[in-house]
Amino acid sequence: MVTIAFEDLTEGLVVPLGEVKIDREDMLEFARRFDPQAYHLDEEAGRRSVFGGLSASGWFTASLWMRAYVDHLIGDSTAQGSPGGRELSWLAPVFPGDVLRCEVTVVGARRSKSRPGLGIVELSGTANRGDECVLRFTFAGLFGCRE
Amino acid sequence: MVTIAFEDLTEGLVVPLGEVKIDREDMLEFARRFDPQAYHLDEEAGRRSVFGGLSASGWFTASLWMRAYVDHLIGDSTAQGSPGGRELSWLAPVFPGDVLRCEVTVVGARRSKSRPGLGIVELSGTANRGDECVLRFTFAGLFGCRE
């Protein structure tokens, strides 16, 4: 029996997803594999860039947020994937050693008309460094209904 | 001297970004690290899911698209990062062995008023399996101007 189903994800619900720390080596490894731009790989190029320092690929930050979302909410749920999002914002550069507090808020929820037993949940995920939001992802998640 | 600057990214330009093949082990490694949901990790769970088979994390597909975008367009450019996107769509599940043809289209371009020397380019990136679009990412990219 799963813990979280569509019925549990009601509008306004805010779920803390814990903290992630940006590990320098992890960040560089991701950049080498998926986003080898100079400012994500090289200190000096980072300093000269608009970011002002070696910074994380936005896809790394988003992927770390996803991990937090799986670990703290949907890992034990009726989640059936996502068709995507209508906002993915990288609001500020992320640096090695940063600690990001992750969270997700249920923005809305409705049952699918075309697929009985499934619900569509609109969610907004954020990662914050102190009071500053550095990542926001607003997306739809599909979840099986309990009943 | 860089190859690509703001001035080169004119509305309507379509740039092929090559093909990426979905490697099963790479796909699983990414899922274990960033998106450990059962249908991304386990054959049987994948078959039972709405995806009908072991499928890639959408973040893996997006990250592979990013790599193609760096390799074929912005690796040697005046790119200065991205504030994010207004659409990230996972339109169909992606499976091991799939070959995705990546592409990016310039949707619009304007000079920044607040930051002289920078231009804001609206781009739409896609990954296609045959005729089927499996990923679309519509986003803004900041680029330095040549002049």
Automatic annotation (TrEMBL), chains A, B:
InterPro entries: HotDog_dom_sf (IPR029069), MaoC-like_dom (IPR002539), MCH/BMMD (IPR052342). It comes from Solihabitans fulvus. This is MaoC family dehydratase. Pfam families: MaoC_dehydratas. Residues 19-113 form the MaoC-like domain. PANTHER family: BETA-METHYLMALYL-COA DEHYDRATASE, MONOAMINE OXIDASE-RELATED. The lineage of its organism: Bacteria, Bacillati, Actinomycetota, Actinomycetes, Pseudonocardiales. It comes from the Bacteria. SUPFAM superfamilies: Thioesterase/thiol ester dehydrase-isomerase (SSF54637). Belongs to the enoyl-CoA hydratase/isomerase family.
